[in-house]
Amino acid sequence: MLEGTLKLTLNMEKTKITHVNDGFVFLGHRIIRKRSRYGDQRVVTTIPREKARNFAASLTALLSGNYSESKIDMIEAVNRKLKGWSAFYQFVDFKAKIFSHIDRVVFWKLAHWLGRKYRSRLKSLVQSPGPGSK
């Protein structure tokens, strides 16, 4: 039907026929059918683990080295990546856990980057001054 009517040909290396219960990745989203807490079946989209891992690795690479760059420019670069990635995955289900993981990666990698840039210990960067301290 695809080849005859629509004049489309399938790339057999990329084409995989699978059941929706087994799940599949389409355009960077994992699509799978799960049972909801009410007992009915529903289709959900999630972020594939590999995509989350690769994104965390790209943030790590961005925040590794390049200490001559200003902190404002570095934070703007990280924010651009975060905004784009979060906008792409804004409508997926069960994203809180993965977004939380990315948040921790950014916090600690940025803290290490600032520590190296200013040759300071992480403890002094992370600690917030208590009430009444100057």
Description:
With 134 residues, the chain is an alpha+beta fold. The termini are far apart. Helix 1 (49-62) runs parallel beside helix 3 (96-117) and helix 2 (71-88) packs antiparallel against helix 3 (96-117). Strand 1 and strand 2 (29-35) form a beta hairpin. Strands 1-2-3 form a three-stranded antiparallel β-sheet, with no helix packed on it. The protein has one domain (12-126): Uridine Diphospho-n-acetylenolpyruvylglucosamine Reductase, domain 2. The protein is elongated, with a radius of gyration of 21 Å. Helix content is 44%, strand content 12%. It has four helices and three strands; from the N terminus they run E-E-E-H-H-H-H.
How would you briefly describe this protein structure?
With 134 residues, the chain is α+β, with helices and mostly antiparallel strands. It is built from four helices and three strands, in the order E-E-E-H-H-H-H. Strand 1 (24-26) and strand 2 form a beta hairpin.
Q: Helices and strands in order, then pairings?
A:
Elements: E1 24-26, E2 29-35, E3 41-46, H1 49-62, H2 71-88, H3 96-117, H4 122-126
Antiparallel strand pairs: 1-2, 2-3
Helix pairs in contact: 1-3, 2-3
Q: What separation lies between the terminal Cα atoms?
A: 74 Å
User: What is the tally of helical segments?
Assistant: 4
Q: Which stretches are low in confidence, meaning pLDDT under 50 for 5 or more residues running? A: none
Radius of gyration using CA atoms only: 21 Å
Question: What is the count of distinct domains?
Answer: 1
- The overall pLDDT, averaged over residues, is 88
Shape: elongated
